[in-house]
Structures are given as structure tokens and as C-alpha cells.
């Protein structure tokens, strides 16, 4: 008897739980049915994995509705997401052209929701172009952060793959081999040895020059040169007109004297040339007499000037 009473209590508890659960589902469904919402639609050009009907729709982080349905767009390419947006958020969606829908992750569960946020710049141009007329009021979309990261990684991968890594490796290897061959050349050791010896000699010469000039005092010489320059400048500055004229006349006389001396030198040069020719003629005559002494006694008379041959 006690067993039957116990079974009866368990059955009543289970039936009550079922009734409460069904009632809760009916209440939730009825609340959604009778909730004052307006349908909006958005289109994504990326995967909506993790987004399901009933997922949240948030306006700048505030719950604003739920996803009503997910389907393929009429063009067969985009993903159509219909959203039931609460009445109090409709005004913002209709009157703010900077709003864009974006897929966001809900924690680490992998589930996603639709975030409606204000955007600027290039994000406003990322909405896919539609080739058909949407059924409901449109809220343009923009790429999700995950897609942006994926695109950036893809771009980095393409750039890395476009780099000629084998060619760079071969060039580096050739450069290292050339450097190794250069460093192992015996002439490098000789050059370094000569450079070291030259450096040591330079240090020695510098030391000798320093020792030689230790006791030399250049200050008086510099001071005297400076004083002489100042005196010469003062002398030229104090010349009056008469003195300057006298200096000019003296310069002209000196120029005339130099020209006369030049003429004398030219005359002497001509005289020396004539003497040189005379000496050469005497030397030639002496040589001929030495070879033929009879020319002094039996030579014919010199030919008269002005007479023609045969006369």
C-alpha cells in the first residue's frame, strides 16, 4: 500500500513538471507571438555558422530582438537573415544610415548573434550589392572581425608565398661562400699585416713630430706675422694721393726699363746667333783645310756675285 502511494506521488510530481514545462513553452511562444516587433532583413556574404533562429539581435549591446529565419538569398549567393526587432528600436534602424549589422561571437561557445552598431569609413562600403528587391526593410551588413582577420591572414599568406624564397636562399648561400673565400685568401692576412705595420709607423711618426715640436713656440711667429700684416694694411691705408701717383709713375718707369732690358736681351740673342753661325763656318773651313791643305794654294778664285754661268 505504501508502495502504491509512493508511485502515486512520483506520478503527480512528474505530471506537474510536464504541465509546468509545457505551460512555460506556451507562455514563451505566446509572448513572442504577441510581442510588438517589426521585421527587418540583412544579408551576409560570409558563413553564418553558429547563428540560429532565435539567436539574439542587439543594438549596440542592448537586446533589440531575435533572429526569425535564416535562408539563402534569391541570388543564390548571399545569406538572408530576417530579424524581429522590437518597436522601440525601429526608429534608430530607419533613421540612422551609419548602422550596420555584424556577426559577433557569444563568448567561447561558438554561438553567434547579430550586432547592430554604428560604423564609419570603409566599413560603410562593405555591404554586399543586391541584385534583387528585399522583402523587408533592409539593414546593410559589414564584415565580421573574424572575416577581417581571416582576410588579413590570407593576404599575408599570399605575400609570403609570392616571395622568391629559393632565390633568396641561393643568393645568401652564394654571398656566404664568396665571403668565406675572401676571408680565407692569404692576401687578406698580408693586407692586414701591412695595415698594422703602417699604423704602427704612423703612430711612431706622430710621436716623433710631437717630440720635435714640443719645445717650439709658434706663438711669437704668429704674433709677428699678424703685426706685420696690420702694419702693411695701415701703410697702404695712409697713402695720400701724391704718394700713390709717385708709386704709379715708378711702376711705369720700371715697366719701361723692363721693356728696354727685354729689347737688349733680344739683340744679344741675335748677335749670339750670328757669332754661332760664323764659328760654325770657320770650323767647317778649318776641317776642309785640314783634310786638303792644297786648297789654300790651288783653289780657284771665288765666284763673282751677279755673274751667270757660262759667261
The whole-angstrom Rg is 59 Å
Number of contiguous helices: 8
Proportion of residues in helical segments? 55-70%
Order of helices and strands: HEEEEHEEEHHHHHH
Key descriptive features of the protein:
alpha/beta, 8 helices, 4 domains, 7 strands, disordered C terminus, 58% helix, 311 residues, 7-stranded mixed beta sheet, 15% strand, elongated
Quick rundown:
By secondary structure, the chain is an alpha/beta fold. Helices cover 58% and strands 15% of the residues.
Structure write-up:
- The protein is of the alpha/beta class and 311 residues long.
- It has 4 domains: 1-34; 36-143, no CATH class; 146-190; 242-275.
- 58% of the residues lie in helices and 15% in strands.
- The protein contains 8 helices and 7 strands; from the N terminus they run H-E-E-E-E-H-E-E-E-H-H-H-H-H-H.
- The protein has helices at 2-33, 87-95, 145-162, 165-183, 186-212, 219-237, 241-291, 295-298; strands spanning 37-44, 56-59, 62-72, 79-86, 99-105, 112-118, 137-138.
- A 7-stranded mixed sheet has the order 5-6-2-3-4-1-7.
- Strand 5 and strand 6 (112-118) form a beta hairpin.
- The longest helix has 51 residues, at 241-291.
- The relative contact order is 0.06.
- Residues 306-311 have low confidence and may be disordered.
